[in-house]
Amino acid sequence: MTQPKPAAGRDPAQEDIPPAAPQAAQPLPFASPKSNAQQAARESTPAPSSSSGPSSTQPIQFTPARTPAPGPQSLPPGPQAPAAPPAAQTPIVVKRKRPVSRFVMLVVIPLAALALGFAWWLGSGRYVSTDNAYVGADKSLITPQVTGAIVAVHVVEGQKVSVGDPLFDIDPKPYEIALALAKGKLEAAKVEFANLQATYASNIDQIKMGEDAVRVRQADFDRKNDLAISRSGTAADRDTSMANLIQAKQILEFVKWQQGTVTVKLGGGPGTTIDQFPDYMQARAAVDDAERNLRNTKVLAPIDGVATQVPEIELGRVAAAGQPVFAVVANTGLWVDANPKESDLTYVHVGLPATVSVDTFPDREWKGTICSIAPGTGAQFAILPPQNASGNWVKIVQRVPLRFCFDPREDTTGLRAGMSAYVTVDTGRVRTLAGTLEGLKQWVVGYVETLMGARTAVIR
Fold first, then answer.
1. Whole-model pTM?
2. What is the DSSP letter of 65?
3. Average pLDDT for 383-400
4. What does the H/E/C string look like for 298-350?
5. What count of Cα atoms within 13 Å lies in the side-chain half-sphere of residue 179?
6. What is the structure's pLDDT at 183?
7. In angstroms, how far is CA 184 from the centroid of its own chain?
8. Would you give the distance in Å from CA 128 to the centre of its chain?
């Protein structure tokens, strides 16, 4: 019989490890019953206490060698005692608990997310917002109405001005001379009107005298004609009388023609006033134009606001009429021009309440209303509008400009034209669960009808 080999030497690191609990002896498959009983008795004997000192011995465990079981010829003769049954061990049952976190992650969180998403969707159709919005203000380009050299500037960059405040002056001397010339023409028109009235009155007397002369000449001609017929007078006297009659008629016609000319120049006759006299009206208009040009040499602020681009004005520079010099931007009466998508305007109309926030003041919010919506998209008013009927076509969502007007009670101090804004419009539309279910029902019914129609068409 082969003896088992002893275990390896004692490891010093294992000295502090307590000895394992003794286990029931297991019979060796190749040992006799007697030897097995002795071995079990030795193993069941308790080891000496470790308090006996360094000379105490540690239990030595033996590992049976892996040798083939002996054949029947190697067994000793005689009856063999039954082997002792091994000691029963109490089984350890480990209960596996399903973690709660798995249920939360797989059931609770998805349901909560679904409920929150549905609640957000129900309330998402009420407000329409866009960040394509900018603050607008009235801008007045200061353009001189007359041409001349700039002789004085009364404002500086960023100065607040009110309506009527002087901005700069243009040399008024040429326009003072033009005004004096226009006034002289006006006085000449007054004199001409008086002369025409006197001529008209004189022509009336001359016409009366001419008519009397024609009657006398006519009577003299008739008498001499009768004498010539009766052979009491000569034909020469008759011809002389006829010549005098013709001359008197010509003079009368000339005076009448001259009276008609005077009447036309007066513009209606002796009852015409000087304000209706054409020459006077022209002279009066020339005076008014000269006075206006003289007034325009002093350029005044047309609106309340802030002067900007003032450094472009230089003393002595000749400002051309109709050419902008600088600008004044209004600091009151502001608005916001927004450009939402066309798909967002389904429930938007004029008069809806809205709010505006500006990037410069992120913690403030202004209230107001939608005061106007453009009749067309921005592309319709472009210099080169798109021609969608030619070439390849790609659908692009258009934007429709609308204007937000601030509430009169809102303080718009600090806002500047061109600032980026964020507009939110309250359409008042609320989605409900009943409406959602009704819409879903209609969609399902329509889908089923479509399928049935397609099936019927396939069968036919």
1. 0.57
2. -
3. 82
4. EEECCCCEEEECHHHCCCCCEECCCCCCEEEECCCCCEEEECCEHHHCCCCCC
5. 14
6. 94
7. 57
8. 13
Structure tokens at 169: 């002056």
Distance CA 230, CA 449 (A): 127
Q: What is the mean pLDDT of the chain?
A: 79
Q: What are the pLDDT digits (tens) for 200-254?
A: 888 788 888 888 888 888 888 888 888 888 777 778 888 888 888 888 888 888 8
Closest CA to 378 of 369, 366, 386: 386
320, HSE (Cβ side, Cα atoms, 13 Å): 3
Structure tokens at 211: 């008519």
395 band by pLDDT with thresholds 50, 70 and 90: confident
Question: What is d(CA 194, CA 215) in angstroms, rounded to the nearest whole number?
Answer: 33
Q: Please name the residue that has the structure tokens 């606001």.
A: 305
Please state, in angstroms and rounded to a whole number, the distance separating the CA atoms of residues 226 and 235. 10
Report pLDDT digits (tens) over 36-78: 444 544 544 444 444 434 444 444 554 554 545 444 444 455 4
- The pair of structure tokens assigned to 177 is 């001379």
What lies within 8 Å, CB to CB, of 431 at 6+ separation is: 121, 122, 123, 124, 125, 126
Place of tokens 């921005």: 378
Taking the CA atoms of residue 388, residue 390, residue 395 and residue 398 in that order, the dihedral angle to the nearest 10 degrees is -20
First to last CA, the chain: 96
- Give the sign of the dihedral formed by CA 187, CA 189, CA 192, CA 198: negative
Q: Which residue has the tokens 């409406």?
A: 435
Among residues 285, 318, 288, the alpha carbon closest in space to that of 175 is found at 288
- Cβ-contact 390, 309 below 8 angstroms: no
Write down the pLDDT at residue 238. 81
Both structure tokens of 305:
């606001």
Cα separation, 290 vs 279, in Å, equals 17
Contact present, 241 and 250 (Cβ < 8 Å): no
Give the torsion sign (CA, 25, 29, 32, 35): negative
Q: What average pLDDT does range 295-302 have in this prediction?
A: 93
Q: Provide the greatest CA pair distance for the chain.
A: 221
Check if the beta carbon of residue 192 is closer than 8 Å to that of residue 230.
Answer: no
Q: What DSSP string runs through 433-457?
A: HHHHHHHHHHHHHHHHHHHHHHHHH
Strands 160-161 and 298-300: unpaired
